[in-house]
Backbone:
C-alpha cells in the first residue's frame, strides 16, 4: 500500500487569491500520478494524468507539476473562484498494474 | 460519448442482509472497471478492479465480492452486510494504462 500524503488537509481562501497544495508519494516504481476534483454531491472529475518527471500540465486556471525523483506534485489554482470549491485528490500509480492509491485530499473553500 | 451508470443512489440495509450494487458503462469496449469505497473520515479505498470479463482483482480482504458477467457490467455483492460496510461506493472505468478514471454518481449505503 502506497503512503500518499496531501497537504494542507483544508484551505480557505478569498475569491481572486491564488493557491497551491501538495501531494507526496513514494518515488520508487513510479508509473503515473492522477489529480481529481471532487465537488460536493458530484462524482470525482479527472483533472490531469502525469507521467514524466518535470511534467507540467494546465487546464484553464489550474495547473500541476510533477517531480518523480523526490516524489511530489503541486497543484496550483490561479485567481480562485467560488466554483473551485471542492476536494482535490491525488492518486499515484506504482508499477504496471491498474491500481491507484488515493490521498485523503485537500478541501478547498473559496469565499466570495 | 462514454457514460457510466451506477445504482441505486442510496440504500439502507439491515445488518446481515445481502447486497447487490450494479454499474454499467456505455460507449466503450473492454474498459478497466473499479469499485471504490469511502468510509466516514477516510479517503477513497480501492476494493476491486477488473481488466476483462471474469477477471477480478481484490485489494482488501472483506465480506464483499465483485463480478463482471459482461464486458461493461460490474457488480458489487455481499451475502451478509456488516455495520462496517457503511459508506459511499463509487464505480469507475478507464480506457487504458495512463488514462484517467471516470466515476459514476455513487451509492450511499447505510447499514442499520
Residues:
Amino acid at each position: 500500500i502506497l503512503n500518499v500524503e496531501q497537504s494542507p488537509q483544508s484551505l480557505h481562501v478569498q475569491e481572486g487569491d491564488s493557491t497551491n497544495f501538495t501531494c507526496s508519494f513514494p518515488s520508487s516504481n513510479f508509473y503515473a500520478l492522477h489529480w481529481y476534483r471532487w465537488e460536493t454531491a458530484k462524482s470525482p472529475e479527472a483533472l490531469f494524468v502525469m507521467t514524466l518527471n518535470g511534467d507540467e500540465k494546465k487546464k484553464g486556471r489550474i495547473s500541476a507539476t510533477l517531480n518523480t525523483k523526490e516524489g511530489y506534485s503541486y497543484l496550483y489554482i490561479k485567481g480562485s473562484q467560488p466554483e473551485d470549491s471542492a476536494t482535490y485528490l491525488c492518486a499515484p500509480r506504482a508499477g504496471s498494474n491498474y491500481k491507484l492509491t488515493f490521498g485523503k485530499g485537500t478541501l478547498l473553500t473559496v469565499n466570495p | 460519448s462514454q457514460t457510466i451508470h451506477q445504482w441505486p443512489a442510496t440504500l439502507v440495509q439491515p445488518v446481515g442482509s445481502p447486497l447487490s450494487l450494479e454499474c454499467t458503462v456505455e460507449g466503450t469496449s473492454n474498459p478497466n472497471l473499479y469499485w471504490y469505497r469511502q468510509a466516514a473520515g477516510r479517503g477513497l479505498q480501492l476494493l476491486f478492479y477488473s481488466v476483462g470479463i471474469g477477471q477480478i482483482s481484490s485489494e482488501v480482504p472483506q465480506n464483499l465480492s465483485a463480478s463482471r458477467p459482461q464486458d461493461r457490467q460490474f457488480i458489487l455483492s455481499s451475502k451478509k452486510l456488516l455495520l462496517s460496510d457503511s459508506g459511499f461506493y463509487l464505480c469507475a472505468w478507464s480506457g487504458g494504462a495512463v488514462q484517467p478514471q471516470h466515476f459514476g454518481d455513487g451509492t450511499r449505503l447505510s447499514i442499520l
